[in-house]
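Session log. Operator J.P. requested a structure for one protein chain; no other inputs attached. Running the standard single-chain path with token output.
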Amino acid sequence: MPRIVKRTEHTYYWNAAPITNLYEALEVLTFDNSSRTPVHLAHENSPDGKTWEILSPWYREGSSGGDSSGIEYFQIDQELAEKLKAGGYLQPRKEVGWGYTRYNEKELVASQKAHDEDRSHSREMEKVAESMLTAGVHTDLAGSPTRLRFGREDWRTGRLHFDYKMSNGDTCRVYPEEKELVAPYPPQEEKKTA
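Structure written below.
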């Protein structure tokens, strides 16, 4: 996904508009990143020091000392951030050190409730998506769907979708939250006839 919105002189947000959907926010917050620091909600390092944003630290090991790391930033609606905090979806980040454990109140991570809610919503949306498929058209002839992939349109943000293999070999995409089915996917442009 291209970096769309400039955050500071050297950083960008990975989403064009703030996240407003609870489940989209939970999916970003519960993502298992490759860093020692988990994905978290914070406002201390935001450009104005007050705006809540989601920070997703990452780390990639390289050969011969070529390791790299960074932070992916996501905008989040401020009312949704407060709702996540009030709803028990977030908890202070636990920092464990030599002989101590402390909780960082400035960095909020996904709670067990957030992980459970994210998994439950994904399973529920998969059932909704499969209920929208027509047997023998969007599934194999026996009516069994073949899911190819699922995710969000813009890497970790955007509309939730499930892709299925159709009986003719094409792919169809279902957006269960919007109750929308696109077949074939990607849409074929109509052939121009002279």
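Operator note: Residues 122-182 form one domain.
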